Amino acid sequence: MRVAIEADGGSRGNPGPAGYGAVVRAHPTGEILLERLGSLGTTTNNVAEYSGLIEGLKAARELNATEVDVRMDSKLVIEQMSGRWQIKHPGLRPLAATAAELVTHFDKVTFDWIPRERNKAADALANRAMDEATGKIPRSAPEVSVAEEAEAPPASWAPPSLDNATRIILVRHGETALTKQGRYSGRGDVPLSDEGQAQAMAAGGRVAGISRDVTAVLSSPLGRCTRTAELIAAEVGGIPVTVVPDLIECDFGDWEGLTFAEVQQRWPNEMREWLASAAVAPPGGESFRAVSKRTRGVMATIKDEYAGGVVVVVSHVSPIKLILKDALAASDAFLHRMFLDAAGVSTMDIWPDGNIAVRSVNETSHLR
């Protein structure tokens, strides 16, 4: 999904009582999807402008946008985020770094300067936030969308309706020889073991227990997944398996086929950096952030092409963890704290409005 962000910020006094505003619009209609505003206490215009950009990017991420067009009347922010101007002020560097980190979560982000008269919506929100900062009007909740406030249903603990929901059943492939030995298994095409075949059939029974009205079975192109997918498909009516290249496992590069202990002994610094940041790739391999871009594209396709259906996704540890991480709005730390068994099953529902309900994670009762 492509969106446009219009962002602004300002202060009464520079520095003075400050606030930001951000508007996220649908492309190409221009329909307002989300609005954000907030007061910042006493600070400068530039800090407020960067704050508007950051909140706009966060809002776009909430909408699961993949492409973002940023439009601001701040020449400084646009030029610095485009890399054409240096960030000399030390107080702006952390804000620019935060914005840059958010940018990595999208497939494409552009930055364009627009005149103030074309940024009236964000400017109005920023001025409202500044009025709140000076006490002229009552303070509003900074994280509430104006559009959501008018249209969103009241919060409830009641089970969500399945009307219009797309059910996604995530299945990790069955066991291989490398799985059993605890070795990194990325792009190597390792076949299922005999135990892995049995696990895949058991996973097929569990999927059939969740739903026999499966719309599609999608699989990574690697054999351990396509075979698992075929055995599952046979349990739910023999529907064909669709290979999706972007569901392939993370490329572990030089670490392929090694254990964690072996990697830690030979690449201690690289391992430490990899564990600390999803943007870091193993030597010769692929970062989790790059894998995340792939999986987000797959999820967007499922939402568009299989809306209202039941889709089985057969993949690997990294892609499934990243899909669950996004669904649960978790931090990157989730990737190293979540364990997924071979042939484990996780279930989630997504709705056209972007709402998500995770029903189960790593079910393994079918394997006992």
Automatic annotation (TrEMBL):
Substrate binds at residue 224. InterPro entries: His_Pase_superF_clade-1, His_PPase_superfam, PGM_Phosphatase, RNaseH-like_sf, RNaseH/PGlycerate_mutase, RNaseH_domain, RNaseH_sf. The lineage of its organism: Bacteria, Bacillati, Actinomycetota, Actinomycetes, Micromonosporales. GO terms for cellular component: cytoplasm. It comes from Paractinoplanes tereljensis. It holds the Pfam family His_Phos_1. This is Bifunctional RNase H/acid phosphatase. Transmembrane segments: none annotated. Residues 10-19 have a biased composition (Gly residues). GO terms for molecular function: nucleic acid binding; phosphatase activity; RNA-DNA hybrid ribonuclease activity. Residues 1-20, 133-159 are annotated as: Disordered.
